[in-house]
Design brief:
Elements (H helix, E strand, L loop, with lengths): L9 H27 L8 H36 L3 H6 L3
């Protein structure tokens, strides 16, 4: 039987993801502080690039969340117009 490494366990991956999420939240918070204090120009190029990527991802996420909210609103509105018999016929 050959020796092999199966890589990190599922537990290790979950733990790394949690740590990465915390680090990302901290970095995001610090980027807001830098902006608020008008100190962003003092950040390194790497930091500025991370902030730009993070801002773009945040904007995309917010647009998707808004789209989902609107979709749910339209769905609720449409369902409210149906009679009980119509809902039953549609399997709702």
């Amino acid at each position: 039987m050959p020796c092999r490494d199966d890589g990190p366990s599922e537990y290790d991956c979950d733990m790394m993801k949690r740590r990465l999420d915390v680090a990302t939240r901290v970095a995001c918070e610090l980027s807001h502080i830098l902006r608020g204090n008008k100190q962003l120009d003092q950040a390194t190029r790497e930091t500025k690039e991370w902030i730009q990527r993070h801002d773009a991802a945040d904007a995309k996420r917010k647009l998707e969340e808004e789209r989902e909210r609107q979709e749910k609103k339209v769905r609720r509105s449409a369902l409210a117009k149906l009679t009980l018999a119509e809902k039953k016929a549609l399997g709702l």
